[in-house]
Amino acid sequence: MTLVFATCLLSVISVPTVFAQMAQMSVQPPATSADTVCKESDTVCSVRLFVEHKLTMILEKEQALIKPQNGRLTTSTNTSTYLTLEQEKRVITADGYRSILVIAINGQFPGPRIEAYVGQTINMTIVNKLHTDSITVHLHGIHQKGTPWMDGVAFITQCPVLPGQTFNQVFEAFPPGTNMYHAHIGDQRSMGLYGAFIVYPRKTPEVIGLNQIVILLQDWNHLMDPETAYNRMLTQQFDFDTGKVIDTTYSVDRANFSRFEFQSGLINGQGRHWADASTNNGSPLPRFQISSGVTYRFRIIGAMTLYPMRVSIEGQTFTIRGSDAFDIERTTVQSLVIHPGERYDFVWQGPSNTSQKQYMLVAETIETPESLNNNKYHAAEAILEMVDVTGPVNLNPSKAAPPNCNIINCTVLNCPYQFYPRNSKTTCLTFNDLLNNDPIRETDKIIGNKVDNEYFFNFGFPGQNGNTPGSVNAREFIFPSVPMLTQSDEISTLCDEGKCRREWMCACSYTQNIPSDKLIQMVFTNIGNGAGWSHPIHLHGHSFYVMKMGLGTYNPDKGDLIAQNQDIICTDGREFCSTMRWRDSSWDNGNVTGMNDDPPQKDTIVVPTGGYVVVRFISDNPGMWFLHCHIDLHNTNGMGMVIDEGDTKPTTPIGFPVCRNFEFKGLPTKSTSMATRFRFGAENIIALGLVSIWFTMQF
Question: In the record, which residues are listed under signal peptide (predicted)?
Answer without folding.
Answer: 1-20
